[in-house]
Task: structure prediction
Amino acid sequence: MTQDHDNRVILCHVCAGTGFDLKKFERVKCKTCGGSGLTKPPVTVTSFLNDPRHWRMRAEEMRRLTEEMRDEDARGMMLRLVNDYEKIAARMEQTSQADPLPRGKRR
Result:
């Protein structure tokens, strides 16, 4: 059974909770849910926007792109974005450590 951080699961959208591929005549295990009939709820925007790893990956991607740039002004702008993404990641880390409630549980 697949569960998210709130231990929520939903019926698999591919097999409708049966655990079997409904498009096949013979009983073939659903590849999406692995035959359990359950999957994680869809990822929400806020779930990854508050994740420091998301921002660190964006920074790394931006850093790689700057290596290929020839225009120095554009490269400088991109490196400032890298710095900003790193700042956001650090801020999200601080926020998650200071806030014991998951994002969806705020009042």
Helices lie at 45-49, 52-67, 72-98. The longest strand covers residues 10-11.
